[in-house]
Write a structure and sequence with these properties.
The complex is a heterotrimer. Chain A is α+β, with helices and mostly antiparallel strands. In chain A, 32% of the residues lie in helices and 27% in strands. Chain A has helices spanning 20-26, 31-39, 41-50, 99-108, 129-138; strands at 10-18, 54-59, 67-70, 75-78, 87-96, 116-121. In chain A, the strands form two sheets. Chain A has a four-stranded antiparallel sheet with strand order 2-5-1-6. Chain A has a two-stranded antiparallel sheet with strand order 3-4. The termini of chain A are close together. Chain B has a single domain (2-111), classed as 2-Layer Sandwich (Alpha-Beta Plaits). Chain C is mostly helical. Chain C has three domains: 6-107, no CATH class; 108-172; 174-308, no CATH class. In chain C, helix 18 (329-343) runs antiparallel to helix 19 (345-353). The chains are: A alpha+beta, B alpha+beta, C mainly alpha. At the A-B interface, strand 1, helix 2, strand 2, strand 3 and strand 5 of A face strand 1, helix 2, strand 2, strand 3 and strand 5 of B. Strand 3 of chain A pairs antiparallel with strand 6 of chain B.
Chain lengths: 143, 117, 413
Amino acid sequence: MTLELNEDTMNYTLLIYENAEAFALRGHPDVEKRRAYWAAWPPYAQALREAGVFVAGAGLEPPDTATTFRDPHRRVQDGPYADTKEQLGGFFVIDVPDLDAALEWAARVPVAAGSVVEIRPNLVPPKAEAAASTARETLEARP
Amino acid sequence: MKFSILSYESPDNFAARSDARREAHFGAVFRYIAELKSAGVFAGGAGLELPHTATTLRLRNGERLVQDGPYADTKEQLGGLFIIDVPDEATAVAWAKRCPHEPGRVVELRAHIQSPG
Amino acid sequence: MSEQAPWRDTVERVARDSYGRLLAYLAARSRDIAAAEDALADAFRIALETWPSEGVPDKPDAWLMTAARRRLIDQSRRTQVRRAAEPALAADGETAAIPLGDVAFPDERLKLLFVCAHPAVDVAARTPLMLQTVLGLDAARIASAFLVKPAAMGQRLSRAKSKIRDAGIAFELPVANDLPARLGAVLEAIYAAYGSGWDDVSGADAKRRGLALEAIELGRVLAGLLPNESEVLALLALMLFCESRRPARRGPRGEYVPLSEQDVTQWSRAFIDEAQSLLGAASRRGKLGRFQLEAAIQSVHALRAERGAVDWDALCLLYDALLRIAPTIGAAVSRVAAMAEAHGPAAAWQALEALPAAEMDGYQPYWALRASLLARLQQRSEAASAYERAIGLCSDAPMREFLVQRLAALDAS
């Protein structure tokens, strides 16, 4: 994953929040429902790639598999940060000209009914030269 | 195995990004990323802008609803994420614990779906 | 009708039926849409405060207009702006003793529509502005329908209104020479509220479903104000033809049903009859225009209800004519779809390949059509790739599900 620091475009993160029913589709006993859930994601990611906007993306294991670390003393807990109705199920980072373009891609995310997509602009690395070059270097993934 | 280390920030932590504490705030993040890199486990990441810059999209009764603001109304909000690629969960936990400390910061470790179901 | 609060029912009725007329009149006089909106909002607020105790006036519209005009005049005096507007405001009725009786006011909505679509107004603001001012829709709802951040839509509307005020754009009907172009902009803005025009897409896209009725309402308002303009009648006909098929677009489980498989008994006969009548009136009145061609195309589809078949050759001719005067991606793709039915997939494939690739890249209906042609040409793996691309670009769940099934059917065949 390379962070493109193109002046004309911005990075946005699409945070995908799924409800319990959506998470349940992942391992649903009904093979059709299970298949339908998994079938939609690769075409979406591929469409992002073919449009040249894909920066990163991942599906996340369900929230009950999470581990949370709270201060003070880094108390470790099983489970996710918050007990909200919808939970983070995955994300994509995309490189697009503006928020309207990001929203168009957000609308294409193949979420199940009841899921929510949050679109957040990414931080532009600080302008200070040293910081900028560090950012460019450190935010590049190893190949 | 890939994991995301999710960093949830308090309003004060977000404020630290743009006041006198900003160098310390970002410095700690960059040092952490450098450590991840030199250990060969860094696989990407994203720093997120302030929660009020978010837009939320949902379906309600078949109609698309676009709203200002982030998804959740929680005190801490997602401020960034680090993606790591490590041999096992124990290593991931160790790295999550080394994520820079800030009062009010909550760190969540979540495994990536390693292969489609 | 709630017996406890007849005044509330009246306020709601007036808001629903007369908001646009009231606002248009106030905005035309003050040349300041935002100030007119505020004044009208104040008037409604005062009505809700005073009518419960003082009773509902005999002519509530007139009462509200009078109250709003008073607010406007007070405001303009306080801020000392729009000297040009003051005489217009004052001349219409004296402020000191405005009778609360029979104050009829002309319908200025046509002028308001032309102002909203004025060349100086940002194209992206025109449709939202019409919806907000003529129909009273709130900005958040408009934002959702157009997939825009609500705060950004609010700013866009605000900037457009400021521009109209600061540039001194007059609330006047265009002169004859300018009318065709200016009217074209109004029609396009109304049509943008309805959808893209390619039936399957506009029906399947949830983004647009929410404003279809509002677009038709704007179309009706315009047709009432310009009943002799052929393109105005044609636009309304077009939207009614498309809307007539809405009940048939979804199956019993909410699944997507393509046009060719729709149950024609579910098409609205009333909408089709009205649309045919409007299209007939349009064709008798003026020279052929974009919306007459689009409506004619839809009328050919509507004839399947009577004849059981679609005249694909006629559709090809109509699309050829449409593309000559109003080339759009949607029409270009639809033409290829018609060719596939009239001349077979090989001929259609040639036409598809001639389309400009860069423009088609992110256009989901193009990929869905490409996939279906490839499938018919027995090129299964290319068809599968095209279906996957269409699926990845899809923003409507039932349509996506339909394409996923078509993809799966490739393997089965």
